[in-house]
Specification:
Blueprint (H helix, E strand, L loop, with lengths): L19 H6 L10 E8 L4 E3 L7 E3 L1 H13 L4 E7 L16 H12 L4 E6 L12 E2 L14 E2 L1 H17 L3 E4 L6 H11 L8 E6 L6 H6 L20 H12 L4 E5 L5 H10 L5 E5 L1 H12 L5 H15 L3 E4 L2 H10 L1
Parallel strand pairs: 1-3, 1-4, 1-12, 4-5, 5-8, 9-10, 10-11, 11-12
Antiparallel strand pairs: 2-3, 6-7
Helix pairs in contact: 2-3, 3-4, 4-5, 7-8
Bound molecules: ligand PBG.
């Protein structure tokens, strides 16, 4: 293909870069606020608690979450994804599927004020468990004869995830997004939703989620850091790319309606591969907390132009193949896109 182009001086790519209008005509990728899903951290109590490691982001009361969701909606951002910080934590995370749990309350409040806004919920255990792990642990009544104390058990976790997804759907969630990287989570949640009359609720699977250092600030924000060990027994090894296709294929077979790759920046190649393997399925990229905080820190020091680098990196996600971007930059980026 490239060989067919005549050499310089016949070929002069600069001809198509001469004016802003010409550049706009030949632009291949468009970024719009409709591409964004804005994450909200909801907690009990009143007001906002800023998150030191994520400048501009705060833990929100239910009322503040509604205000923040309205700001997003008015800027053309159609969706939020909710993370809850419960009042109390225990070994399996009971508030995660309580009808008056913090996320359930936030869903109802946002849908009451903004019925057309798409409310996505993160379905995982780590913010709700006292040990900070994404599943039921081998211990006490759940002790597994052949696995060490504290190992994250797969199959007992599936039952809890099903209950959490149903509870979110009952509160009015539009889309559920399991993020725990348990095997069979999509199938278990699909079955649980269908059984309770929620066959119409789509599953956005965090199908390809890596064991990443870039989740650091999120774990402050959501207060969900593991109390011991790490998540490497379920999240993917950053060195693996082909395995992402297997993870995605399994989730598609279990009924995932949409897929996600997470984090984003170090995995643009994976976004591209998953999009090419499953072009029919909408693909989301999660521009995670550490990616956000790096940009904010560099911008605060005057080392990069925040607006420029944020729009450049979000465009990069779309160019790589993402249809949707979960990003803490959503409100700023939507404002900048409206201005330009
Ligand atoms: C798990 C979950 C995590 C993130 C989203 N969902 C944390 C983890 O896996 O440890 C991280 C998102 C971010 O860093 O912005 N509930």
């Amino acid at each position: 293909m490239t060989a067919a182009y005549p050499p310089f001086p016949l070929s002069r790519p600069r001809r198509l870069r001469r004016t802003p209008a010409i550049r706009a005509m030949v632009r291949e990728t468009t970024l719009t606020p409709r591409d964004f899903i804005y994450p909200l951290f909801v907690r009990h109590g009143e007001g906002r608690t800023p998150i030191a490691s994520m400048p501009g982001i705060a833990q929100l009361s239910v009322a503040e979450a509604v205000t923040e969701a309205r700001t997003a909606w008015e800027l053309g951002v159609p969706a939020v994804i909710l993370f809850g910080i419960p009042a109390t934590k225990d070994s399996i995370g009971l508030e995660n599927f309580a009808p008056d749990g913090i996320v359930q309350r936030a869903i109802r409040a946002i849908k009451a004020e903004l019925p057309d806004m798409v409310v996505v919920t993160d379905v995982c255990l780590c913010e709700y468990t006292d040990h900070g792990h994404c599943g039921v642990l081998s211990s006490g009544e759940h002790a597994h004869p052949h696995l060490e104390e504290g190992f994250v058990l797969n199959d007992p976790t599936l039952d809890v995830l099903g209950q959490v997804a149903v509870s979110h759907a009952e509160a009015g969630a539009d889309i559920v997004a399991p993020s725990g990287m348990m095997d069979g989570m999509v199938g278990a949640i699909r079955a649980a939703l269908d059984e309770k009359g929620f066959a119409h609720i789509p599953i956005l699977s965090y199908a390809v989620k890596y064991a990443s250092g870039f989740y650091g600030p999120f774990r402050d924000a959501a207060e969900g850091a593991p109390k011991f060990g790490d998540r490497a027994s379920h999240q993917m090894d950053p060195a693996n790319g082909a395995e992402a296709l297997r993870e995605a294929a399994i989730d598609v077979a279990e009924g995932a309606d949409m897929l996600m790759v997470k984090p984003g920046l170090p995995y643009l190649d994976v976004i591209r591969r998953v999009k090419e393997a499953f072009p029919e399925l909408p693909l989301a990229a999660y521009n995670v907390s550490g990616e956000y905080s790096m940009v904010k820190a560099a911008a605060a020091n005057g080392w990069v132009d925040e607006q420029r680098v944020v729009l450049e990196l979000l465009t990069g996600f779309k160019r790589a193949g993402a249809d949707l971007i979960i990003t803490y930059h959503a409100l700023d980026a939507a404002r900048w896109l409206q201005e330009t």
